[in-house]
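Pilot study result, target chain (385 residues):
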Amino acid sequence: MVPRSIALLGPAHPLRGGGIATYTETLAATYQKAGRRVAVFTFRYQYPKWLFPGTTQLSSEAPPAGLEIYPIIHSLLPSNWLRVAQHLQTWAPDLLLVNVWLPFFAPCLGTIVRAVQRRRPQLCSIGIVHNISPHERFPAAVALTRYILRPLDGFLALSEAVAHELRHFAPTKPFRIALHPPFEYGTAVPREEARRRLGLPAEAPIVLFFGLVRPYKGVDLLLEALPRVPVPLFTVIAGEWYIDPSPFLQRARELGIAERLRVDNRFILRNEAPLYFCAADVVVQPYRSATQSGVTPLALSYERPVIVTNVGGLAEYVEAGKTGYVVEPTPSAIADALTDFFTQNRWATFAAHLREAAHRWSWRGTVETLDALAVELFQNRQGAE
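Predicted structure:
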């Protein structure tokens, strides 16, 4: 049967709308538009301060209109996990969707899933797997990952790269793959208007790095690449830094690119995101490692070509030579792609392909994929009985 009532576990408002929180909210809203009963069970306490390097975990934006959100989970309080399970039992979903992204949350979410399954043995549970391996080292990561995956009945992997790792941890359980759709941040604006509103140069060739800055995202590789490009590029790094930016800014001065570098070191609100993408000529993701990224489909949805490194699932979104470039994570490879794009007028070549790619992935398609997996799981359960 297609599930009619769906509960989601994971970050959401009033937590700040990072990638996974926005994914959770958008997926819930899509179910709601399809006429389903849906609720999100999120955190009232998520990260301890030592694990969160940002300025605040709380959102300054209005809550998503019309969504039923319960901020009741405390990530470090086992007695709370049992109360959350009781709340879920009372809410009585047909399907429980659990975000899987960081081993730190495995004890909390894994215990909640087990407790609610004891109360509702007929409940079907699917893990939405953003990451299997954490981007940075985490103690006992493998054991914790097994703990969160073991009670789940099936999985939705957000890239083939994630699915490959998932097969190692849960080789016998059903799964589907649905690439991350673009977030619905707002309509595009003309490039000239976007640049004017952001105070960016009207005519300069502009490169954009968008999102939280963390060690694995390779901002240093991008900076080292820029002086090798025979075009005076203007580069925008838009997103809060989870590392000290001082050494990077000092390196930019040493490379002679500081005057053509703008760093907006803050969390970029959803209504601002379209301006950054529409102002840019190309979006660069110089990651050293990755699973997948919401930035890639978001850039393509605004018809902006991307330069991604050949790590994780980033390349799964890109048609090389049509919607962007897939390169090795080195300054020289990134510089070669930038040089080719700006000196060979690739915008004209890419334009038609980008228009097509802008509509390739949809949230409705993700819901349909989850429905198909849920039906399979329900049928397997009935067959076993």
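One observation from the pilot: The mean pLDDT is 93. A full batch analysis is planned for the follow-on phase.
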